[in-house]
Amino acid sequence: MKFNYPTGVTANNSSASNAKVNAAPVYGKRGMSLEEEINTSNTYYLSNAIAVIHKKPTPIQIVKVDYPKRSAATIREAYFSKASTTDYNGVYKGKYIDFDAKETTNTTSFPLSNFHEHQINHMKQCQNAGGICFTIVKFVKLDKIFLLKAEDLFHFWDNKETGGRKSIPISTFEENGYLINYHINPLIPYLDAVDQIMKKL
User: Fold this and answer.
1) Residue 168 counted as domain residue
2) Which positions does UniProt annotate for Mg(2+) binding (predicted)?
3) 4, 26, 38, 67: which has the fewest C-beta neighbours closer than 10 Å?
């Protein structure tokens, strides 16, 4: 299915597809993308009354639909009606949570090109309003997942705008981030890292 931005530019969804293809095998969850792993974890958090965190729907405007028969409508063309912000938001222990999830096949750094300026601005606004913001990054080939606080992301993003490096070295994730080890329930216990962030507030 073809998606277009409001400016008429066709969206390239190949990166999302590749992320699913390249996702590393994990404890019987073979082939799951980071997004699927987080969704599974959020379902556990919700069903156990721990947190209410959901993936944000992507706002689209449908412009072409085929109706081969009444019970089988197929969307043929749609447009992103506005730029999306981050992937997830919700409430945990009375705090607003807002974060994005990214995957990379790089093994030494995370390219900042994976983010868009409107996403960074959104997180800055949420954080200024008292929310807790971060990114969860999966280094696919290393089979490692890190949670990195928004402040650390902002540091590299702002420096990039003034001639700094265009990626975050993995050493930053190892030294300043939180390594998230796979578990059974939830699959990705990322709220354990959020608990540590809350203790420092």
Assistant:
1) yes
2) 85, 87, 100, 119
3) 67
Known binding positions? 85, 87, 100, 119
List the binding residues for Mg(2+): 85, 87, 100, 119
- Percentage of the chain exceeding pLDDT 90: 68
The number of folded domains in the chain is: 1
* Burial tier of 36 (Cβ tally within 10 Å: 0-12, 13-18, 19+): middle
3-state class (DSSP) for residue 172: helix
Answering whether pTM is above 0.85, one says no
Phi, psi of 150 (to 5 degrees): -60, -35
Integer Cα distance of 72 and 29 in angstroms: 31
User: What tokens does 35 get?
Assistant: 């997004």
Cβ within 8 Å of residue 145, ≥6 positions away: 34, 136, 137, 138, 139, 179, 180, 182, 188
CATH of residue 152: 3.40.1350.10
